[in-house]
TrEMBL record:
Record bears the keyword Metal-binding: no
Residues forming coiled coils: none
Taxonomic lineage: Bacteria, Bacillati, Bacillota, Bacilli, Bacillales
Similarity comment text for this entry: Belongs to the class IV-like SAM-binding methyltransferase superfamily. RNA methyltransferase TrmH family.
Naturally occurring in which organism (per UniProt): Paenibacillus illinoisensis
PANTHER family named among the record's database cross-references: 23S RRNA (GUANOSINE-2'-O-)-METHYLTRANSFERASE RLMB
Name this polypeptide is given: 23S rRNA (Guanosine(2251)-2'-O)-methyltransferase RlmB
Amino acid sequence: MEEEWIAGKHSVTEALRSGRTINKIWIADTAQKHLTQPIIAEAKKLGIVIQHVDKRKLDQTVPGIQHQGVVAQAAPYAYAEVEDILEAAKSKNEHPFLILLDEIEDPHNLGSILRTADCTGAHGVIVPKRRSASVTATVSKTSAGAAEYVPVARVSNLAQTIDRLKEEGVWVVGTDVTAQEAVFGNGVFTGPVALVIGNENKGMGRLIREKCDVLVKLPMQGQINSLNASVAAGVVMYEVLRSRQAQG
């Protein structure tokens, strides 16, 4: 049977709250009681098996992840369809606000982007099936549980997905350090919008860049002319939120 691991207090708590199917929760013998008691209480209410184990078992199960003495075995992450994300925006009577990630490979970046996407009211994130980070325990932990609330769709062809979004009236905005237009105050974010964030090293691919309706850049005042992908994505997402709130 396929299984996935969710690690850390926030990630496991949000997985429980969101209704994710959890098969078992492991608690380290040395875990701090104030961190684990609410999780144990919630798990017992839901009839989830809880097992107290040596911390080293958890270290081996989710190597390299700060699990805080809490690890859950869950059903595989359920990816959304692009149509589901658009429908969610429609049901809220909101203009779609999507994040398209063009080969973001670092799971920490994906996790951080999901966290900010949740905070800024984005309806969903779209990633390609190949050469892209998928939703793993590391992503869930970095997202502080936001991975349980922000729908993620995986698509075979990002360029074709952009074409479909355009047919739905979504304005596709790419972030690029060589763009002429500044991200702030340009008026493109108040309607249906999809932000495209490029790969950590190469940026957006040529075809994806050409398919964008407009390219924007963040102003740079220092000696280094680029930001970490998740930081840049966060700044632009908050500009979308600011623009929409200003419009009222």
